[in-house]
Design goal:
With 210 residues, the protein is of the alpha+beta class. 16% of the residues lie in helices and 24% in strands. Strands 1, 4, 9, 10 and 11 form a 5-stranded mixed β-sheet that branches. A 4-stranded antiparallel β-sheet has the order 3-2-7-8, with no helix packed on it. Strands 5-6 form a two-stranded antiparallel sheet. The structure holds fe (ii) ion.
């Protein structure tokens, strides 16, 4: 009886580890999925597009909302870092309002929120930025977009990527139309991961070679 139990235990352990190897490999071969650009890519010229979206150069105030930091790496499908990638990102402010003339929602504008950044991945493909948690915003009368950040990621020799970063533990992730078009593996690649530090999230971007 004991040896049967032991055999079952070994079988389960071996199958379990094979499954995790398979999952890692499958994951490693996936690129960050594409997502809709949405209607609010910035069109108003803006000088300050640095990695701190909580301050606008020339203004003394700080953006309203929950301040968060997001860090990660840009990688190829073999998990090699890619340096000098252009990471263009834009998002709604804490009230769910875009700094865009076509956003006619009644949510307030926050003049101290930078809302748009253009970064380069540095050594080992790393990047980091500071921002505020984007607010949800209404899409149709009953629907709300779950909090997200838009990304346009480009580098010569790689497929350009238009995508959206999502946040863990958001109730609206369950009902968001765009998020729920993706399968679980895709959602995992598109959702920033919590870290040991409060308000610090980890998000890697995987690009396909042309
Ligand atoms: Fe959006």
């Amino acid at each position: 009886m004991k040896s049967i139990k032991r055999r079952n235990f070994i079988k389960t352990a071996v199958l379990g580890s094979l499954a995790s190897v398979f999952a890692t490999k499958t994951h490693a071969n996936m690129v960050t999925p594409t997502d809709a650009q949405g209607p609010f890519y910035p069109i108003t010229p803006q000088k300050d597009k640095d990695a701190d979206l909580t301050h606008v150069k020339g203004r003394s105030g700080t953006a309203k909302g929950q301040i968060i930091e997001i860090y990660g790496q840009v990688l190829d499908q073999d998990m090699n870092p890619i340096e000098d990638v252009t990471i263009d990102l834009w998002q709604a402010n804490t009230f769910g309002k875009y700094h865009h003339p076509h956003d006619d929602s009644e949510a307030p504008i926050d003049e101290n929120f930078q809302s748009w950044a253009i970064l380069q991945s540095g050594k080992h493909g790393k990047f980091r930025f500071k921002t505020v948690m984007p607010g949800a915003y209404p899409l149709h009368s009953s629907d709300q977009r779950t909090p997200h950040i838009h990304f346009k990621v480009t580098k010569y020799g790689y497929e350009s990527l238009l995508t959206q970063l999502y946040f863990p533990d958001q109730a609206l992730n369950k009902t968001d139309g765009l998020y729920n078009r993706k399968n679980k593996d895709q959602q995992a690649l598109m959702t920033a991961k919590k870290t040991k530090m409060d308000n610090v999230l980890h998000y890697d971007i995987i690009l396909a070679k042309v």
